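Lecture notes, part 5. Sequence design as translation. It can be helpful to think of inverse folding as translation between two languages: the language of shapes and the language of residues. The source text, in structure tokens, appears below.
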């Protein structure tokens, strides 16, 4: 795909004054009174169980699991009382390329004091390609360490300054330079990860710099997940967006290497990786040629497919051309690295059969409550696990104008820890939607809190981000970890167990013994926030100073093509 720098998107939007007279209602006006109706536990439980059953084979795009998912969602949306959301169709085609690496060689590093270093595919490194080529060969490619791999002119930061990496293999650190700081102050938001810290950005920038290959050093803390997640997510079939040039402007190969192996490679080059990691945190860091070469090859099995977003709509009764959006991704990883017992289906029960089931349960509730003033869109997107591709495609090719989309709520994985005293807001303080959430949470006798781990970059890891980049205010929140039964210690323990043992693995499976009380309490808040948005005439915006504010202002003054 052809990538555009995130910095360029923001800079272009900032050329339009954020002080335009946008036709927003008073953001401090009273909010509509909304009473959440009874929400169906049976719907949540039954659909989650079915979507995450082995019959759906992990819901990979382009698979039999997709066919079954589409059939289930259209049936459930119809029975809930929604109308097809794309004319007479429930679907929006999302053109994808399906790529599977076969016969992957070892990654061989030559030229160092340790002699040849070979890393095995899966257990020690992963690699794939976004180029539509039947065979990928990286042969004796010079290796360059480029720190965090960031080129952010608006911050005066360029890790590629003064070095030519065309045709070379760049080695990159995950997260961004402020990782590990305690405050939220710093060049890159302090402790909070920015988009520059995400693996997606790092591969995009490496491609813009002309690199032949990009290898990210995996480190559990800044990555926010263990090597098991990398292995299960990056081996097997990968998906990416179709492009006119067949991915010719991409790197030939993108991959990850384990930190302990990276340390051996750097030592063989006469370099100390921990020292370079420290140096890379400072503005003005200069890339370091390693004096080594990298070689790897693999067959690239390519096919093209049109996966599908599923769209249903409940039309508004007085302002049907103003839209409130619910999003959740229906896809998961399909077949993946087997567990010790041989189970190779990544069922994605929590992530995100639960969020997909919530779309149906919420549709049922909104229909039963009667049409609100504004229309509500229920959007189940594909290929989130491949880099938010389904939501990105909709946001760039909207069925309903984004300038008329008031805002939205994203749902990605309902935790099964039981009811909590709090709600965690990912990106708290970014937009005026916080006010709607605060009101809904207060009605339920709970409190909102900022995410406790902003360094993990969750704001850039789910589908709301695709819409935020286009200026649409989106809110993303989850049930908190301060549990009524057991407090924060119990909640943190349950969250850690899920991340380490089940997230993006075969054991994210439906459990008939799950406690759904917390899920249903959270679902009530998802209902209330969207219903308030659908019953007001206000147009909540991003807060002053937020990076997406100028993009929204431009859209709302009629200067956007969306």
């Amino acid at each position: 795909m052809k990538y555009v720098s995130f910095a360029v998107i923001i800079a272009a939007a900032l050329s339009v004054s954020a002080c335009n007279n946008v036709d927003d209602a008073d953001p401090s006006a009273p909010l509509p009174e909304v009473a959440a109706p009874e929400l169906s536990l049976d719907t949540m439980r039954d659909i989650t169980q079915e979507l995450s059953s082995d019959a759906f084979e992990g819901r990979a795009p382009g698979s039999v699991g997709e066919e079954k998912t589409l059939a289930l969602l259209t049936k459930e949306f119809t029975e809930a009382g929604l109308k097809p959301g794309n004319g007479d169709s429930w679907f929006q085609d999302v053109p994808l390329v399906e790529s599977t690496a076969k016969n992957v060689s070892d990654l061989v590093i030559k030229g160092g004091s340790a002699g040849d270093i070979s890393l095995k595919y899966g257990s020690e490194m992963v690699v794939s390609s976004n180029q539509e080529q039947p065979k990928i060969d990286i042969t004796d490619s010079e290796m360059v360490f480029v720190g965090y791999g960031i080129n952010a002119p608006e911050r005066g930061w360029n890790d590629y300054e003064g070095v030519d990496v065309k045709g070379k293999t760049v080695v990159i650190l995950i997260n961004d330079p402020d990782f590990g700081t305690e405050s939220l102050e710093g060049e890159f938001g302090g402790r909070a990860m920015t988009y520059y810290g995400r693996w997606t950005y790092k591969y995009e920038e490496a491609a813009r710099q002309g690199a032949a290959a990009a290898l990210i050093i995996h480190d559990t803390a800044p990555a926010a997940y263990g090597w098991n997640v990398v292995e299960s997510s990056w081996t097997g079939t990968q998906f990416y967006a179709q492009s006119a040039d067949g991915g010719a402007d991409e790197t030939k190969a993108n991959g990850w290497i384990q930190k302990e192996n990276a340390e051996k490679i750097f030592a063989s080059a006469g370099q100390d990786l921990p020292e370079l990691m420290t140096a890379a945190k400072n503005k003005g860091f200069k890339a370091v040629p390693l004096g080594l070469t990298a070689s790897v090859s693999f067959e690239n099995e390519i096919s093209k497919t049109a996966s599908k977003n599923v769209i249903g709509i409940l039309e508004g009764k007085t302002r049907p051309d103003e839209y409130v959006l619910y999003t959740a991704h229906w896809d998961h990883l399909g077949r993946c690295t087997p567990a010790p017992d041989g189970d190779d289906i990544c069922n994605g029960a929590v992530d995100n059969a639960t969020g997909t089931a919530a779309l149906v349960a919420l549709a049922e509730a909104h229909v039963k409550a009667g049409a609100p003033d504004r229309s509500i869109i229920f959007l189940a997107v594909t290929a989130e696990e491949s880099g938010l591709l389904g939501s990105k495609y909709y946001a760039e090719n909207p069925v309903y104008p984004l300038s008329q989309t008031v805002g939205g709520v994203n749902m990605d994985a309902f935790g099964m820890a039981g009811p909590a005293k709090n709600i965690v807001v990912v990106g708290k303080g970014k937009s005026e939607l916080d006010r709607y959430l605060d009101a809904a949470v207060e009605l339920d006798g709970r409190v909102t809190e900022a995410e406790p781990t902003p360094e993990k970059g969750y704001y850039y890891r789910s589908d709301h981000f695709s819409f935020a980049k286009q200026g649409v205010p989106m809110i993303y929140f989850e049930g908190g970890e301060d549990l009524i039964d057991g407090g924060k210690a119990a909640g943190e323990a349950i969250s850690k167990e899920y991340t380490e043992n089940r997230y993006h693995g075969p054991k994210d499976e439906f459990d008939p013994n799950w406690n759904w009380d917390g899920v249903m309490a959270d679902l009530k808040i998802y209902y209330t926030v969207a219903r308030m948005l659908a019953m007001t005439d206000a147009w909540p915006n991003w807060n002053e100073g937020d990076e997406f504010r100028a993009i929204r202002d431009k859209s709302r003054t009629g200067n956007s093509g969306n």
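The translated text above is only one of many valid answers, since several sequences can fold into similar shapes. The two ends are 20 Å apart (CA to CA).
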